[in-house]
Design brief:
This protein has one domain. It is mainly α and 239 residues long. The protein has 10 helices and no strands.
Length: 239
């Protein structure tokens, strides 16, 4: 029953994402090793984050920009196909360590700049974000720079980050199902985490304007770093 400790964790991480617009997925996936098998971490994370992001977009639906959807979705389909091929070749015992390395890179290394600010930038974002997401799970920060070029309003960024990440998680769930992962055997845990994710989105939406963003970001980066280091050590601790 220890895996059900992920339910309150899902609430807290979804609340973080509701305030910041990103980061909740990183915290959640960094907490999952040890609660569920390595092979289930990324598929279950995708399902939970789909609910969290869809609910966050619904709670702020007035800020949704439909123009970002077609190009990103096209790129996401290509990325899921390419990333799925790599995922099938991974040694899943070392998957937590692989995710930990990628999280440290996403947290501390300057993100690659996608050329241009038009629809092609969204296609490229869909390709590398979804492709990398098949391996790392939490890739939300990758899209921040691209969306920032289009609109720097905080509510617009939070809601449309939720929109493109919803597409990302939906495509990846389909890819994992086609690869043979059975979501049905995890329904009780998923139901709890999905409900917690939606509740966290609701709470985060209402807290967004009360939390100083600069201080929060600094402490958040160090928290993510500590959890990523835990993931790096997990294969050794579990052996």
């Amino acid at each position: 029953m220890s895996e059900f400790l992920l339910v309150p964790i899902a609430f807290l991480t979804s609340c973080v994402a509701g305030v910041m617009g990103l980061g909740g997925g990183m915290l959640l996936i960094a907490a999952m090793p040890g609660f569920v098998p390595a092979s289930a971490i990324i598929p279950l994370h995708a399902a939970t984050q789909l609910a969290s992001n869809v609910s966050r977009a619904v709670f702020g639906w007035r800020n949704i920009d439909p123009s970002i959807i077609p190009a990103f979705l096209f790129g996401a389909l290509i990325g899921a196909w390419a990333g799925g091929a790599v995922y099938a070749q991974l040694d899943l015992d070392w998957l937590p360590a692989v995710i930990g390395v990628l999280i440290l890179v996403l947290t501390w290394v300057p993100l690659p700049k996608v050329p241009g600010g038009g629809q092609w930038s969204l296609v490229l974002l869909g390709i590398y974000q979804t492709g990398l997401g098949m391996l790392a799970g939490a890739t939300g920060p990758l899209g921040a720079a691209v969306l920032l070029r289009r609109n720097d309003d905080r509510d617009w960024l939070v809601i449309n980050s939720a929109v493109y990440m919803s597409l990302n998680h939906c495509v990846r769930m389909a890819a994992f199902a086609l690869a043979g992962f059975s979501f049905g055997s995890w329904i009780p845990l998923l139901a709890g985490m999905v409900a917690a994710g939606i509740a966290g989105s609701w709470a985060g939406t209402r807290l967004r304007h009360l939390v100083p963003q600069a201080d929060f970001q600094r402490w958040f980066r160090w928290l993510v770093t500590l959890m990523a280091l835990r993931m790096l050590a997990w294969p050794l601790l579990a052996s």
